[in-house]
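Please fill in the sequence for the structure shown.

STRUCTURE ENCODING:
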């Protein structure tokens, strides 16, 4: 009786002309597929401006191995779509009620205050407040402050103060765009987005901006931009 000789999987596949990936493929069970589908739906509900590609990126961050084609197919089957906006595009992150922080640098709030020069040209002011200490982390004035500009301002503030655990904002395009979302992910900062038409959910920055307008902007006549 002849003795059997063991050969490697690589050699065996080469002999029969079969790819190793085909041999090693383990099909997903219905339970795994349904779990992935439910996670896609959960993310889409939390971040309503995310399409399947950005959902796929979040799944990879969570350690879920899923092909982007699979994510797209499940995304379509679940009837998920991102409505097109005429004037702005962005992402929506978790919407949470206002909570009182317990220490400095736990939560910052950001918002814009609008004003104008003597000739009517617009001025845009970004205010950043520490919700615990109620102090202004930074006040930046310029003609335009897009999302990438906001991240540079935050990097500058972090050099002398450190980064917060979370930042609360409204749903302005500067705050819901890819630039701030990527910056927050890379720096481990949570973005807290208030509900539309609910400024009381960002009461700390609203209170600061009200005093800033009454005591500064309304009391001065600006001839030139900064």
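FILLED IN BY: designer on duty
SEQUENCE:
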């Amino acid at each position: 009786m002849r003795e059997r000789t063991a050969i490697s999987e690589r050699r065996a596949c080469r002999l029969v002309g079969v790819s190793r990936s085909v041999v090693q493929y383990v099909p997903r069970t219905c339970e795994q597929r349904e779990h992935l589908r439910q996670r896609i739906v959960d993310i889409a509900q939390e971040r309503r401006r995310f399409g399947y590609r950005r959902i796929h990126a979040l799944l990879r961050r969570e350690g879920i191995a899923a092909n982007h084609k699979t994510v797209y197919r499940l995304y379509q089957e679940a009837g998920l779509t991102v409505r097109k906006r005429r004037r702005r595009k962005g992402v929506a992150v978790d919407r949470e009620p206002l909570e009182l922080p317990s220490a400095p640098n736990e939560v910052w709030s950001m918002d814009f205050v609008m004003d104008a020069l003597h000739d009517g040209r617009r001025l845009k002011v970004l205010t950043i407040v520490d919700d615990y200490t109620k102090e202004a982390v930074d006040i930046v004035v310029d003609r335009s402050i897009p999302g990438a500009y906001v991240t540079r301002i935050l990097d500058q503030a972090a050099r002398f103060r450190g980064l917060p655990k979370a930042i609360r904002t409204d749903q302005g395009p500067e705050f819901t765009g890819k630039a701030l979302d990527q910056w927050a992910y890379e720096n481990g900062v949570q973005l807290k987005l208030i509900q539309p038409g609910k400024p009381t959910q960002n009461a700390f920055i609203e209170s600061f901006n009200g005093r800033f307008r009454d005591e500064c902007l309304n009391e001065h006549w600006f001839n030139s931009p900064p």
